[in-house]
Write a structure and sequence with these properties.
The chain has 352 residues and is an alpha/beta fold. It folds into 2 domains: 236 residues, 3-Layer(aba) Sandwich (Rossmann fold); 98 residues. The chain has 11 helices and 17 strands. The strands form 4 sheets. Strands 4-5-3-6-2-8-9-10 form an 8-stranded mixed sheet, with helices on both faces. Strands 12-16-15-13-14 form a 5-stranded mixed sheet, with helices on both faces. Strands 1-7 form a two-stranded parallel ribbon. Helix 6 links the parallel strand 9 and strand 10. The longest helix is centred in the N-terminal third of the chain and has 24 residues.
Amino acid sequence: MRWYDFLLYPFALLYDLVTSLRNIFFDLGWKKSQKSNIPSIVVGNLSVGGTGKTPMVEFLIGKLKSGSKVAVLSRGYGRKTKGFLAANSQSTPSQIGDEPFQIFMKFKNEIEVFVGEDRLAAIEKISAGEESPGVLILDDAFQHRYISGDLNIILTTYHKPFCSDFLLPMGRLRESRKGAKRGDMVIVTKSPETLSDHDKSELVQKINRYIKPKTPVIFSSISYGVPFPLCGDPDFSPQIILLTGLADDGPLVEYVSQKYQLMTTLSYPDHYDYSLSDFEKIKTVFQSFLPVQPVILTTEKDAVKVKSNAPEGFLQEIPIFVLPIVVSMSLTDEAILDGLIQQKVFNKDHHK
């Protein structure tokens, strides 16, 4: 804990009171929670940001798209529009949000991507379309209790698990740890690929204090693929200027430091909207390292913002590469996930 956390404790108690009352109202039925009329998977967390929701959503899409028509519904955090929108070839990150835009650009016509603050109304519009999806992935909807998913997946990171975290503003939890009882599965994300069974068991025991009995706890890791150019066909260089706009870029900085020669890191806040002055700064930093012929390396999430906001000619002047993220898990854990999806999502009658 930080030395000043005791000063924040009263505010955390107040936050706990407000969020707990809200959950009690839903639990008692005083606030209504409605089942989605489309088979649905909720991907969420108890904390704010940084648990790897977008890579996990993409992982689930990869699993499901060959057997079902998949749609993703997100609030569209950070967008400059309001209301219900369907992503299309003319959409921009500012219209639908950078993460929905990233997902749409990656899968394009293989899936549908929608955004809408009112998820109940959005689902009604999606299901009223020409061909209703076979499965709907609700991104970051665990606290949106007006909708009840068929399968509720809680993500928590290995290095900052919810069971060791505290409520805002002391920590990063947006509701009490006991909220995990609403989950059907916990996936511990960003786990070391060499994690021992003993270490897994220790963390599972801590998580089990807050979830329903027999709720599966599985582990996933992220690895990075081969960098690809954002624009054109420039030559790659191991001399890296890292550009990030993440809630926590620590693991990425560590990976790049080990894999390449990291010259410097330009770190921005999560969901950052790059401006002309930012591009001037990026250009200045790039030119300062010009003798070693560096390249800019950024994330898939940041790449969509850079490509959309960059001034004319910028992408042609400076070699920018994108580092893709790949989610992986053991065959045993993947089988548990597959079985739960089949049981909770596809073996239910949504017309009753």
